[in-house]
Design goal:
Chain lengths: ~160, ~200
C-alpha cells in the first residue's frame, strides 16, 4: 500500500514540475517581438526603397504600439540611417541596439519625425520624411527641430 | 497486490511519455513561431525593377537620354538611378538591363505559373543591342531569379527574381526600343526560416 502511495506522490510532484515548466515557458514566449520587428524592418525598408525625395509618409503603427516599451517616445524604437532600418520594440539596458535589421538600396536621406495620434486618439502614426542626397544637413535638422507637434499638425492638416 | 503496483507504475511511465511528447511539440511550435520570417524577396525584386523603370523612363514613354551614354558603366548607373547597396548586401542583389532595337525582337508565347499564355518579346537578336548591357551583382543570383520566377515552388535557398519588358522611344532619334530587365534578390538569411 505504501508503495502505491509513494509512487503516486512522486508522480504528482513530477507532474507539477513539468506543468510549471510548460506554463512558465508559454508565459515567457507569448507576444514575442522578434517576428514583428523583422516584419516592420522589412516594411520600412520597402517604404524607403519605393519613396522619392521630398515625400512624407505616415506609417500606422497602432497595432504594435502596445508592444513598444522602455522608450520615451515610440519613434525611438525605429532607426533609419545609412541604408539600414533597425526595429527594436523593447529597449535593452546597453547602448547597442539589438532588434532586427533590414537594408534598403534607395540612395536618399530619411528623417523619422515624431509620432502622431489621429484626432480620435485611436491610431498612432510615424511620419517618415525623405530628402534627396543633395539636401544639406541643416535643412534636415530644421525639419527635425520643428518638434513632433508641429510636424503632426501640418501632416493632419493636409489630410483634411 | 504486487501486480496492481506494477500496473500503476507502467501507467505512470506512459503518462510521462505523453506529457513529454506534448511538451516537446509545444516548445518546437513556439520556437518555430518565434523564428518566423516573412519571405519578401519577390516584392523586393519588383521594387528594384520599379526603381530601375522610373530611372530609365522618368517621364512617361521617353527614355532618359543619359542611359545611352557609352561611358555610363554600372557604377555611374547606380549613381544616376539613386541606388546604393550597402557593403554586406552588394552580393545579394542582381540586375541586368539590355536595350534592344524593337525590330530585332520577336514575340514568343510564354506560359505563367497558372498556365496563362501571353505574348512576351523574349526573343531578341543580340545583334540588335543598342548599347552595352548594364549589369550589377553575381550572375548566379540572376540565373536563380529567372528560374524561380518560372518555378515559384523551387527551393527557398534559391534567389527570387522578376523579369520586366519595357517599351519606349529614344527622344533624340525617335528609335523604338525594348528593354529587358531582370532583377533578383538572394538575402536568404533575412527571409527564410532556419537560416
Amino acid at each position: 500500500m505504501s508503495d502505491i502511495l509513494i509512487s503516486n506522490v512522486i508522480y504528482i510532484v513530477l507532474a507539477v514540475i513539468v506543468l510549471v515548466f510548460g506554463v512558465g515557458f508559454i508565459a515567457t514566449q507569448t507576444s514575442p517581438t522578434g517576428p514583428v520587428e523583422n516584419m516592420y524592418a522589412k516594411y520600412f525598408a520597402f517604404l524607403v526603397d519605393g519613396a522619392k525625395p521630398d515625400m512624407e509618409i505616415a506609417v500606422d503603427i497602432s497595432s504594435i504600439s502596445n508592444k513598444i516599451s522602455g522608450y520615451v517616445s515610440y519613434v525611438d524604437a525605429f532607426q533609419i540611417q545609412n541604408g539600414n532600418v533597425n526595429v527594436q520594440l523593447k529597449k535593452n539596458s546597453g547602448s547597442e541596439r539589438l532588434g532586427k535589421n533590414y537594408n534598403y538600396f534607395n540612395n536618399i536621406q530619411v528623417a523619422l519625425g515624431q509620432e502622431c495620434k489621429s484626432p480620435d486618439g485611436k491610431r498612432v502614426f510615424l511620419i517618415v520624411k525623405t530628402f534627396s542626397t543633395e539636401t544639406p544637413k541643416s535643412d534636415i535638422d530644421a525639419y527635425m527641430n520643428k518638434g513632433g507637434k508641429e510636424i503632426c499638425d501640418e501632416f493632419l492638416a493636409r489630410q483634411k | 497486490m504486487r501486480r496492481i503496483s506494477c500496473k500503476a507504475e507502467v501507467i505512470a511511465i506512459y503518462w510521462f511519455i505523453i506529457i513529454g511528447i506534448v511538451l516537446v511539440s509545444l516548445v518546437v511550435t513556439v520556437m518555430a513561431n518565434n523564428q518566423m520570417k516573412v519571405d519578401m524577396r519577390n516584392v523586393e525584386a519588383k521594387v528594384l525593377a520599379d526603381k530601375l523603370i522610373r530611372c530609365l523612363m522618368p517621364q512617361g514613354s521617353y527614355f532618359d537620354e543619359r542611359v545611352f551614354d557609352k561611358n555610363l558603366d554600372s557604377v555611374k548607373f547606380l549613381d544616376l538611378c539613386g541606388l546604393k547597396f550597402s557593403e554586406p548586401d552588394k552580393s545579394e542583389y542582381y540586375f541586368m538591363i539590355k536595350f534592344y532595337n524593337i525590330d530585332s525582337c520577336a514575340d514568343a508565347d510564354v506560359k505563367d505559373a497558372n498556365g496563362v499564355v501571353s505574348k512576351y518579346a523574349g526573343t531578341c537578336d543580340e545583334n540588335g543591342l543598342i548599347r552595352q548591357t548594364i549589369s550589377f551583382g553575381p550572375k548566379t543570383i540572376g540565373t536563380e531569379g529567372v528560374f524561380t520566377e518560372m518555378s515559384p515552388d523551387a527551393g527557398l535557398s534559391l534567389a527570387r527574381g522578376t523579369r520586366t519588358n519595357l517599351y519606349g522611344i529614344r527622344k533624340s532619334d525617335g528609335k523604338k526600343i525594348i528593354v529587358h530587365i531582370i532583377t533578383a534578390v538572394s538575402k536568404v538569411k533575412e527571409n527564410v526560416m532556419y537560416t
